[in-house]
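Notes from hallway chat w/ T.B., transcribed later so I don't forget. T.B. wanted the structure written out for a chain they're using in a teaching module, and asked if we could keep both sequence and structure tokens in one place. Agreed to drop them here.
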Amino acid sequence: MMRLDRLLAAVALTLAAANAFAQQSPNTPPPEPGESSGLTSLGNLGQVDVGLGGTIYGEGSDQARYQRYRDLPDGAIVDGFRLANANDNRLFDVRAEHIGYRDQRYIANYNRYGRVKASFEFNQIPLFFSEDTETLYSSPAPGVFLLPDAIQSTLQASPSALPRVVGQASPFDLRLKRSIADFRLTYSATPHVDLSVSFKNTQKTGNQPWAGTFGFNDAVELAAPVDTRTTEFGGAAAWSGTGGEVRVGYDGSFFRNNVGTLLWDNPLRALDSSTAGPVQGRESIWPNSDMNAGSISALAKLPAQSQATGYVSLGSWTQNATLLPFTTNTALPVIPLDRPTADADARVTATAFSFNSRPARTLWVNARFRSYDFDNRTPVFRVDNTVAYDTAVEAFAEGGTSPYSFTRKTVDVDVSYTPIAHAAFRAGYSREGMDETFRTFDTTTTNTLRLSADATGISWMTVRGVYEHAKRVGTGLDEQALDDIGEQVSLRQFDISDLNSDRFSGIVILTPFSQWSFNGTASIGREDRPDTMFGLRSNDNNGFSAGFDYVPSRAVSAGLSYDYERYTSLQASRQANPGPQFDDPTRDWTTDGADRAHTITASVDLLKLWPKTDVRVAYDFSRAESVYVYGLAANTTLPPVVQLPPVLNTRNRVSADARYALNRRVALGVVYWFEKYDVNDFAFGPSTLTSIAQPSFLMLGYLYRPYTANTLSARVTYLW
């Protein structure tokens, strides 16, 4: 946190630096800093933004949540750099943003027109989870979490002593960072042949919250290490001519995880036990995997303003990670593995074909067919016995794994009719068929009808309305598959259950005067699952927005908008153990969910209203509320329900940006952000999680806390 006196001193130093810049004598006048910094004409352009800034937080503020996906420094910063050169034959452009910080970004583009086009981008995206986290675990090696032997012995003898030992926990910041390097090159070998290559490397490093459990009464939260790399490579050759084009390509994706296993101490055990559990837990995460695919696509131009396209891709997905034993518990017998590695293998075939035509001035037709076939060729892994909760060897009823495969085929047809100049009427139909193995429905078919009407091209009005009706039906229901895994046979998974859906949306834009524009939208959605007794039964949504823009001159513009969204759902379940309870309807319960969100945005831009000065001010407000209401059967035998309080989130944000051009080379700028976030979440609030020691759970202390933040920065922009 930066003190206010340091922040004011930083601003003063920045203004002094601006005067030094202003005294430099220009040779060739560059564009005025108050104007766009883009490359607006042929020639050279250089730009650098330097400055000082800092953030002052209110007492008790959650600084990690305020900075969630960004890195806000205190002190000096090079916030932007650009160097560009262009002429009639080529363009070269290099940019850098937030240099040296966790959210830095570097971009380079080169284009020799008609011959070579290349680009490179390096982008880092931080994720700051929490500064409140603490843990009793030490990590002598990545993925290994150990507790002091004395703590394990104490808690094995007296689990209730856990609150007394958490004072030994060590605090730490929980962070994650993603670094992306992306290179693309296209070489035009001839006027009709292009060769292209692409390379993308995504690396994730840091830690994230993770849970490990030894049963319902003994769970821990861990700061799981993340050290992964995904390398993607692509190459293609394309030919184009007056009659169409053909492209042949290869794409590969290779995922590598340097920490594939987590091993953690059990806080309640110092010795392995066949009844109380093991000393350690172990889990595999994110295995290394490879994807290789080849594709060919073509486009043919046809008579009557028509064209057809086709795409076929054949791919292979593989992973062969070493499999872990069933348990670490040495008090249990060792169960031999059917094979030592996963030997996972799948073949993927994807196709896409389309035809669109405009046979008449008033008629447009488009038809598409897509298919995706995931053929899982992984051999069945035989499992006769398994280990339940690391305490008992039990027979595995299913006898082995179920290699999941599916095929999805989709047909879309759309027709547009424009009888008059400013009106269009559209109708569309889609049919999606899914064939799946090892699901309760062998096949699900979704039929969708779309209707829309548009009035566009009128100088003062634009109107559009869209209605969509969908019906999904499943066939080949296998209720026995649910019974085999101990589920209610009337349970329906939400993604394949029978479904009736209706949606309507509309938009209106009015411009009664050249300075004024008004807009409004509305949407209604209804989803009903008629044959579902347990699971998601309904899921509805409503929303509307209204706003206006006012632009009386080139120097002044203002806007205001309001959005409202509401989502409701109904889920049903039965609280029952195997036996007589399992079929007892008096143990049924429901959850009514309701989510509401209000959003207000406002902005005012004053560009050159005063000479050499740009001022932008914006305000954002959002408030979201989630309510869960639990209901019981009329003749319930369950205990009374204690309703949970609503989950509330409110965020206010004000931003102001002022910029003054001293001359054609130098501009001064000041940016101010105010942000206030309030949250009340019964699950992760500090009033609930007062300690990392919870009943049956040892946590990291990752909380949802409010914050108030004031960020101020001053900068100098210099052009050459």
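Follow-up for T.B.: The CA atoms of residues 136 and 167 lie 9 Å apart. Might be a good example for the class.
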